[in-house]
TrEMBL record:
Keywords, comma-separated and alphabetical: Membrane, Transmembrane, Transmembrane helix
Protein name: DUF2627 domain-containing protein
Species this chain originates from: Alkalicoccobacillus plakortidis
Membrane-crossing residue ranges in chain numbering: 39-62
Length: 80
């Protein structure tokens, strides 16, 4: 059950990043989506959504690897 919940939690930022890529692609091809008043705002919103989703997934993987001791010593937590 715990792994299933973790998978569901990780799917949210994956879809967020995917939607950000879609918004950037649509802005590149001048396809304006309904909630955005201009192409440039849509593109910036796509960058923000992609960055947030990518950072969450990267932080999750980094935290998990740090916990399991699979990272370089320079990235490990300082004791004391």
């Amino acid at each position: 059950m715990g792994r299933f919940v973790a998978l569901i939690i990780l799917l949210i930022p994956i879809f967020t990043a995917g939607f950000g890529i879609k918004l950037m692609r649509d802005a590149f091809f001048h396809i304006l989506q309904s909630p955005f008043p201009s192409i440039s705002i849509q593109f910036v919103a796509g960058i923000v959504l992609f960055a947030v989703g990518f950072a969450f997934i990267g932080g999750f993987i980094f935290h998990r690897d740090r916990k399991n001791g699979k990272i370089s010593p320079r990235f490990s937590k300082k004791e004391g």
